[in-house]
Write a structure and sequence with these properties.
Elements: E1 10-15, E2 20-26, E3 32-37, H1 48-52, E4 58-63, H2 84-97, E5 102-108, H3 109-120, E6 125-133, H4 164-172, H5 183-191, H6 201-208, E7 213-214, E8 218-219, E9 222-224, E10 231-233, H7 238-241, H8 250-256, E11 262-268, H9 282-285, H10 305-318, E12 322-328, H11 335-338, H12 340-354
Parallel strand pairs: 3-4, 3-5, 5-6, 6-11, 7-8, 11-12
Antiparallel strand pairs: 1-2, 2-4, 9-10
Length: about 350
């Protein structure tokens, strides 16, 4: 099925040695390259507003990640490698397009891809933009700014954390219901902000229905745990790849990596998806009684995502890097969609400073 795009954007199918997928392009062929990496439950479609408002000297590039959109449905995500499948896909794509160095921007899951690229290939980057990024320790199962595991088996992170009602709604094609776990309901409650509804909400919701569903895709597999909330990560799919179980020595690799590039951390001040009390974090909803057996907030506190991000960037600056922090007022998880002007002011200044 052809996915409509905004004026000024070209969609192409691109095949590399690693992945065949849909890639969106904007700006001149010989422009300074800016690669955009989307988040979970979305696709390159979510970056279109940012692509069309780039200054004229930039070439915007936004692929559908493996597991999403029009990426090859046979291309699985090996969660035991953390974000490396995504990082290697991105680097090979940029090689294929002839771009040795590039600016990199990522939202949510895409922010984790940015962290991992800063660790594994900092020499390829002109700058990094962390737009409402996942924390450097992944999602779920850690208790402090140092990323200490909440339980020894990282219970409460990975594929078992995704509500099955959401998956059922996607499979059933429920585009219209405004429920707690319907796609549109979740977007309005947790992703947009302050009751704002994006002009292209239907297109953004449609992108959710193009995620690849299954035990090797989304939600991925999971294992039972004796620790509350009684599930621990499996080995396949993006949600498992975000588990702190597979982070390894990411922080140390970021701090040791050279060269150190300038990073922009930009986020919505009212983000409910990435914050110190994220709505989908077991430590946040545990006290509500949604799942019996909650061991208490001392044993299973919410993951302090913002504290983890801030510590990572503070340590990065102390190690010779640099960063700027920008909070966009009255904005949720995707300020580049809901607060385009405010986002672009900071983002374009960042690109100009680092090009």
């Amino acid at each position: 099925m052809t996915v409509p795009v905004l004026d000024g954007i070209t969609a192409r199918t691109v095949s590399t040695e690693r992945l065949t997928t849909r890639v969106l392009f904007a700006g001149p062929d010989d422009g300074i390259p800016v690669l955009f990496v989307h988040g979970n439950f979305s696709s390159a479609t979510w970056w279109e507003e940012t692509l069309v408002t780039l200054p004229p000297q930039y070439r915007g590039i936004a692929p559908d990640l493996r597991g999403y959109g029009d990426a090859d449905p046979e291309a699985g995500i090996d969660a035991t490698r953390g974000m490396r499948d995504f990082v290697e896909d991105a680097l090979v794509l940029m090689d294929h397009l002839g771009h040795e160095r590039f600016h990199l921007a990522g939202n949510s899951l895409g922010g984790l891809v940015v962290w991992w690229t800063m660790a594994d290939a900092p020499e390829r980057l002109l700058s990094a933009t962390l737009a409402g990024p996942g924390a450097p320790f992944g999602f779920g199962g850690t208790r402090d700014a140092e990323g200490t595991p909440t339980t020894p088996d990282f219970a409460g992170s990975g594929g078992g954390l995704i509500n099955p009602d959401l998956i059922r709604s996607l499979v059933d094609g429920d585009r219209d219901t405004i429920g707690d776990f319907s796609p549109r309901g979740i977007m309005r409650r947790l992703v947009w902000s302050g009751g704002q509804i994006p002009e292209r909400e239907d297109a953004l919701i449609d992108a959710m229905f193009r995620v690849h569903i299954g035990d090797r895709a989304l939600p991925g597999d999971f294992e039972k745990s004796e620790n509350w909330p009684y599930v621990r990560p499996g080995k396949w799919g993006a949600t498992n790849a975000m588990s702190p179980k597979y982070i390894g020595n990411l922080v140390e690799r970021i701090l040791a990596g050279e060269p150190k590039i300038h990073a922009l951390w930009i986020y919505g001040a009212d983000d409910l998806a990435v914050c110190n009390t994220a709505a989908s974090d077991p430590g946040t909803w545990g006290p509500t009684g949604r799942l019996p057996g909650f061991p208490g907030s001392e044993a299973y506190p919410p993951q302090p995502m913002m504290d983890q991000i801030r510590k990572m960037l503070t340590d990065y600056a102390a190690a010779g890097g640099s960063y700027e922090e920008v909070a966009i007022a009255d904005s949720g998880h995707v300020p580049f969609i809901t607060h385009i002007d405010a986002f672009d002011r900071a983002f374009h200044a960042h690109l100009a400073k680092t090009s």
